[in-house]
Amino acid sequence: MARSWLVLIVAVGLVLYVEPFRGSPPEPDVSVNGTDIGVTSGSYCWNGLLIDQCADSTYSTPLDMTADQTPAVVKPGEKIEVAFNDGPAPERIQTEQWLKDATNKTVQLKNEQLTVPNKKGLYIYHVYGWWKQGDGNVAFSVQVK
Question: What's the predicted TM-score (pTM) here?
Fold first, then answer.
């Protein structure tokens, strides 16, 4: 009898971990020194067990995505954690750094962290994730002071 309950608990745990009923890609938890940084989601496509959907956002660039955000204030050279804790981790991630003049470059996410520049200013980060079930992206802003 106890063994049956254990099997049932493990099975339910696996179903919840895999999240087959998810209708959109997981968003990363973004933080600096334990303080959360809000993100804005962009367009995505996701193929769940019961729901397959694509959602197009009205944003044309990461600058648009973060226009209404209050940038998180960070110190020069500080590390920002970008971790996918709510659902499956992406198979592939690409991170970009944008400036107000719309120039951008790819930056490395190492051990779920990225390092902000030493130069003061406003920086926008755009994180793309790709999974077997689909893709999605988020953006957030920081002010280096």
Answer: 0.84
